[in-house]
């Protein structure tokens, strides 16, 4: 990594930059919305998330007006229930997670020294899915059809159609659609961080923001799928009367709580860790020194993410679980404070070791940490089972949640807005108005939420829309309402400051804070991450490599041009960031919008039981995605090698583990496997809580499930054989193997369905046949997806896109099959053998 800089004349550099601007330019007119560059998608994401946040804030103010005085009739009980359900839903699903996805998409390419993230079209697809799902869920309140059973949707209240109406379906299907966007973003971020770093940026030299986002994306991959699995069971009960949560027919409402909080508690840290990531970028800048204890803070972040998956039961201390479970999860809930404290102490040590410069970002960050510490202390209190039994479902928990969420997330987000706003238009926001906004928010927040601790200790339950005047809650509720409006005034000032016209104000420096990380080399008018991809030798390269900025902007590093007129970025090795491939990323396309709108249409039509429209939208989605894959991935290049500058050539095509597509499939299937494991958790949950799991009802037998498992195994072996002989160029044999595997897969799917069908397992009669049918359908649907993939490979072979040398699609399909065969063997082995082995 010590190559000398190439000498590039000013004329050549200007010509190269002009060509780059042409290749990476946004389309004009209506086609502007087909943009896929990271800057634009990040800004769209962030803008939509803040609009949803303001909507949720208005709902919160309406609730506080209702609770300001006793016996109030400002809101009806049903409208209040809709308001608090949507407030929690929007804040957790439509603001807290998407805002960090927005920041990541906006910042990561330049922060990593990359030209672009590897799947820009996937980011665009995620944004349109998120925006459409958010409008669908939020818009329901204007038609009196919003969900009204709480943002946690506990059965049996939420499964009661007479009470919850269509609102619960809107919540379940709308959020399932939104979760697709979150998982798409997680795939993009993990592959981007692992495989698209600048040469020299070894994994132990990544910016802390990238480390945190990598951990959070991994958490999303394992936290969101259990909720998707729960949504499937929930909607099957509401739509088809399959009794997963009906105790009278063998179901159990506690299964929903387990699946929801397996998602819900990591979700808190999925929100918190990126906020800490922003502080990890802000604190060193204003201390003007590198972070103290880089390795410690990385290990603490990993530890926090790991421990967060072992805490979910502390939301269920009052459900009658065994004492040993309470002790274990109480101890785990206490233990998570240790890595959290390490991160905070690292920031304090960095500030003490440097010379802190007072600034608005530091003011908001310090205020947020102070609030978060109070929330952490009350968190330790509710982690103790005896105290939780007293405070559970009271306003004490409401206060704790908001101290953690707003202190741990919203204040650092505002700090990040003031810190990174110069990257949007080379101007700072108003320091004077920012200070006013901070003190209004800080004072208003504590005025609003600190009294709720006392209200809760005095016995006020959550989720009540009014209260009598003689129970001693009047003054505390009035003070909380006044504080909420003071807090809202501070937020309003920030919104006005961001939106006000600034065209008459002079442009400032591109790096006004003298930060040391790479994101500050980008300029607002650029639509790529970096002008040329640099060689990195430090964690703070702008401080330690004084020649770096001039070299990047002069095109003296890797990929200084767009010689082939294509959007290109570098793929590097995971650990050492050595250049491996020149990746050609997708450009602007309508396919991202069409596929997102069609998929959203399928979810919306399913909500209203419009079956034909659901099928049509699903078909359009499938066709759009297939065209997207056919036209936008793994095309065969005209030449094998690309000169990337500095005398180095790398391949333009990669397959197998060297390909970013292979990594994307692996990561996606890891999330898919987590959802499947959650369904199997449901099967064994029922098996353990009932003395007679089957209730004397017939099972699918042994022959059909075991035959299905054997056929899936044979189909997998045929795919392995196809991949093996493809290396010899025997395309006729490859096609024969693909066709054989397709026939075996279809036979396996038919065998899997035959068992519960021939034994007349009625899913509405009892939970046992219902859970069997769900597991069979899940496995069969994945088998049908495999068939589509096999036909895709067959079509590629006839089109000349699948050859012995260019075999990325075949490698990716075989990788999918590895996961599928594990699923099939587990599913049909358990269904065929387990009830009889009890």
Describe it for me?
It is a multi-pass membrane protein. It is found in: Cell membrane. Belongs to the heme-copper respiratory oxidase family. It holds the Pfam family COX1. The mean pLDDT is 93. It is built from 26 helices and four strands. By secondary structure, the chain is mainly α.
How would you summarize what this structure contains?
Helix content is 66%, strand content 2%. The protein has 838 residues and is mainly alpha-helical.
Mean pLDDT: 93
Order of strands, widest sheet: 1-2
Terminal Cα span: 61 Å
Q: Would you report the number of β strands?
A: 4
Give the H and E element order. HHHHHHHHHHHHHHHHHHHEEHHEEHHHHH
Percent of residues in helices comes to 55-70%
- Tell me the strand percentage band: under 5%
Query: In terms of per-residue confidence, which ranges show pLDDT below 50 for 5 or more consecutive residues?
Result: none
C-alpha geometry: globular
Largest sheet: 2 strands, antiparallel
| Spatial extent as radius of gyration | 27 Å
Tally of alpha and pi helices: 26
Structural class per helix/strand content?
mainly alpha
């Amino acid at each position: 990594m010590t190559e000398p800089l190439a000498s590039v004349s000013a004329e050549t550099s200007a010509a190269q930059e002009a060509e780059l601007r042409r290749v990476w330019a946004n389309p004009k007119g209506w086609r502007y919305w087909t943009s896929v560059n990271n800057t634009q998608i990040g800004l769209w994401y962030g803008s939509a998330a803040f609009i949803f946040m303001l909507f949720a804030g208005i709902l919160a103010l309406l609730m506080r007006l209702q609770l300001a005085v006793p016996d109030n009739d400002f809101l009806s009980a049903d409208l209040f229930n809709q308001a608090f359900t949507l407030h929690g839903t929007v804040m957790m699903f439509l603001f807290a997670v998407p805002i960090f996805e927005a920041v990541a998409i906006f910042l990561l390419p330049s922060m990593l020294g990359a030209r672009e993230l590897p799947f820009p079209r996937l980011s665009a697809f995620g944004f349109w899915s998120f925006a459409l799902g958010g409008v669908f869920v939020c818009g329901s309140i204007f038609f009196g059809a919003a969900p009204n059973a709480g943002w946690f949707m506990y059965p049996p209240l939420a499964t009661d159609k007479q009470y919850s109406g269509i609102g619960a379906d809107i919540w379940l299907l709308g959020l399932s659609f939104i979760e697709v966007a979150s998982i798409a973003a997680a795939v993009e971020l993990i592959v981007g961080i692992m495989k698209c770093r600048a040469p020299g940026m070894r994994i132990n030299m990544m910016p802390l923001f990238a480390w945190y986002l990598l951990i959070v994306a991994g958490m999303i991959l394992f936290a969101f799928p259990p909720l998707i699995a729960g949504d499937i069971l929930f909607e099957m009960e509401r739509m088809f009367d399959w009794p997963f949560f009906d105790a009278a027919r063998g179901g159990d409402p506690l299964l929903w709580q387990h699946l929801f909080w397996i998602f819900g508690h990591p979700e808190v840290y999925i929100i918190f860790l990126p906020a800490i990531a922003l502080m990890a970028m802000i604190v060193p800048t204003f201390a003007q020194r590198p972070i103290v204890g880089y390795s410690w803070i990385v290990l603490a972040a990993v530890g926090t993410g790991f421990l967060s998956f072992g805490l979910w039961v502390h939301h269920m201390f009052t459900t009658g679980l065994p004492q040993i479970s309470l002790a274990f999860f109480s101890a785990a809930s206490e233990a998570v404070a240790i890595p959290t404290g390490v991160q905070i102490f690292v920031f304090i040590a960095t500030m003490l070791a440097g010379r802190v410069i007072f600034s608005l970002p530091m003011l908001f960050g310090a205020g947020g940490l102070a609030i978060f510490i109070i929330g952490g202390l009350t968190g330790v209190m509710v982690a103790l089972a005896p105290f939780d039994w007293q405070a559970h479902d009271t306003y004490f928990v409401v206060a704790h949640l908001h101290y953690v969420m707003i202190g741990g997330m919203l204040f650092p987000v505002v700090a990040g807005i003031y810190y990174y706003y110069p990257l949007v238009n080379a101007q700072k926001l108003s320091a004077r108005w920012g200070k006013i906004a901070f003190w209004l928010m800080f004072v208003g927040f504590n005025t609003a939420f600190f009294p709720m601790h006392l209200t809760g200790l005095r016995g006020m339950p959550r989720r009540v829309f009014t209260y009598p005047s003689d129970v001693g809650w009047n003054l505390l509720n009035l003070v909380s309402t006044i504080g909420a409006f003071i807090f809202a005034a501070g937020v309003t000032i920030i919104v006005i400051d961001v939106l006000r016209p600034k065209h008459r104000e002079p442009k400032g420096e591109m790096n006004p804070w003298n930060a040391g990380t790479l994101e500050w080399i980008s300029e607002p008018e650029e639509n790529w991450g970096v002008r040329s991809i640099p060689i990195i030798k430090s964690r703070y390269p702008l401080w330690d490599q004084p020649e770096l900025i001039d070299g990047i902007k002069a095109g003296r590093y890797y990929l200084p041009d767009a010689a082939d007129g294509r959007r290109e970025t570098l793929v590097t090795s995971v650990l050492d960031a050595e250049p491996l491939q020149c990746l050609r990323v997708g450009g602007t396309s309508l396919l991202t919008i069409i596929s997102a709108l069609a998929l959203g249409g399928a979810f919306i039509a399913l909500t209203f039981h419009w079956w034909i429209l659901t099928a049509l939208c699903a078909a359009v989605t499938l066709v759009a995605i297939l065209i997207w894959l056919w036209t936008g991935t793994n095309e065969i290049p005209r030449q094998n090698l690309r000169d990337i500058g500095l005398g180095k050539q790398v391949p333009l095509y990669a397959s197998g583990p060297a390909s970013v597509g292979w990594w994307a499939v692996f990561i996606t299937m890891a999330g898919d496997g987590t959802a499947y494991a959650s369904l199997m958790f449901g099967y064994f949950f029922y098996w353990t809580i009932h003395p007679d799991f089957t209730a004397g009802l017939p099972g699918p037998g042994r022959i059909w499930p075991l035959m299905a498992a054997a056929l899936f195994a044979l189909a997998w072996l045929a795919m392995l054989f196809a991949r093996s002989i493809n290396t010899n160029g025997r395309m006729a044999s490859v096609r024969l193997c693909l066709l054989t595997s397709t026939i075996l897969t279809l036979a396996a799917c038919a065998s899997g369905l035959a068992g519960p069908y021939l034994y007349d397992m009625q899913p509405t009669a009892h939970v046992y046949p219902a859970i069997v049918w769900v597991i069979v359908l899940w496995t069969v649907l994945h088998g049908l997806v495999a068939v589509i993939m096999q036909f895709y490979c067959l079509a590629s072979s006839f089109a000349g896109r699948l050859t012995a040398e260019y075999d990325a699609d075949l490698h990716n399909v075989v990788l999918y099959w590895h996961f599928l065969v594990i699923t099939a063997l587990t599913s049909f082995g358990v269904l065929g053998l387990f009830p009889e082995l009890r």
